[in-house]
Amino acid sequence: MKGRERQFPMPRFDRSKGLPVPSLFVAVLLLVAGCATSGSDAPLPAPVSAADYERHLARLASDDFQGRKPGTEGERRTVDYLVEEFRRLGLQPGNGDSWIQEVPLVETTTGTDAALQFGGSALRYLDDMVVWSKRTVPEVRLESSPVVFVGHGIVAPEYGWNDYAGLDMRGKTAVILINEPGFATDDASLFRGRALTYYGRWTYKFEEAARQGAAAALIIHQTEPAAYPWHTVRNGRIGPQVDLESADGNAGRVGIEGWITEQAADKPEDVRPRIAEGKLRKWLEEVVLLDQPHVNGDRYEGRTIEEIRAALAAKTGENVVIRRFERFAVGE
Question: Which residues contact 275 (CB under 8 A, 6 or more apart)?
């Protein structure tokens, strides 16, 4: 996968904790309006009204600001607008005598010749898949990487869940389901049922795959659990992408990240059995006692009941067997 890279310093307004610019502006206004200074007779700014919010929102969302993307004329206009409003409110610069703080960003663009051979099928960029790399290198290439279906790709000790238990992902491609087991099964006892936690977010899937040492991570898109159609994924990856620059060039990220359509995941004849095998393995881990990790994950380092039994048998020289067990549900 080829791409290009560009670095440029940007003000921090567009990157503040994920807040869109209008929300950031109103949040600042609310903070100023809601805080009094002790021992000062300086008049407080007028409270923010719905009309104020609508006016700023309409202005910043207008075509004049061109989407406010970092590195564009629209972003410069946005910053100028914010600075002017801060001055009007009587605020003082917070970075010495400057209203802004420059932050180095990296812009990468996936080449239109991006290719993904999934099993025996060549997937079409944007139609069947979208791929990219967060690593700031000119080209990323991965060949003959074994495909491993890892269920929802979640490691959550507090829920007694580890989709990567017993797997060595080094050099391999993780194929991952979006969302969480509770949504997929409509089981309120799994995680938070159909309520999404961070474990169900696509960003988490890539982060966990990197922690597991995977070479690549592909999420299978399904409209209902993702809560958006394929064209949302597709359109979101068209054109340059902007990220914060890191000291190591994001070397700790998975080499290739991406999404594939549900239809594409079902295409390759040689991949289908592996996904089916992975689904069967995950189901057995959920229903077979010996294949489940011990509930005390910290003490037993995520080992399964069978692994603990085998280790105890080897240590004592005895034939250790499990004759009975009791099932407890959380909350009982």
Answer: 147, 149, 175, 265
Residue 102 to residue 121: CA distance in whole angstroms: 45
Cα distances (Å, whole numbers) of residue 140 to 1, 27, 148: 5, 40, 20
The strand pair at 129-132 and 256-261 is best described as antiparallel
CB 139 within 8 A of CB 1: yes
pLDDT at residue 204 tops 90:
yes
- Cβ neighbourhood burial of 55 (10 Å; 0-12, 13-18, 19+): exposed
Tens digit of each residue's pLDDT (9 = 90 or more) over 172-193? 999 999 999 989 888 888 899 9
In degrees, rounded to 5, the angle at the alpha carbon of residue 235 between the alpha carbons of residues 145 and 120 is 30
CA dihedral of 266, 270, 274, 277, whole degrees rounded to 10:
90
Predicted model pTM: 0.65
- Mean pLDDT confidence for 268-287: 58
Q: What is the pLDDT of residue 245?
A: 87
Cα–Cα distances in Å, from 255 out to 14, 42, 141, 163, 250?
A: 27, 55, 8, 20, 9
Secondary-structure class of domain 111-287 per CATH: alpha beta
% the chain with pLDDT above 70: 74
Q: What CA–CA distance (Å, rounded) separates 100 from 324?
A: 66
Helices (H) and strands (E) in the chain, counts: 11, 12
Q: Beta partners for 156?
A: 161
Are the CB atoms for 178 and 202 separated by under 8 Å? yes
Tokens 């239809």 identify what position? 263
Q: Locate CATH 3.50.30 in the chain.
A: 111-287
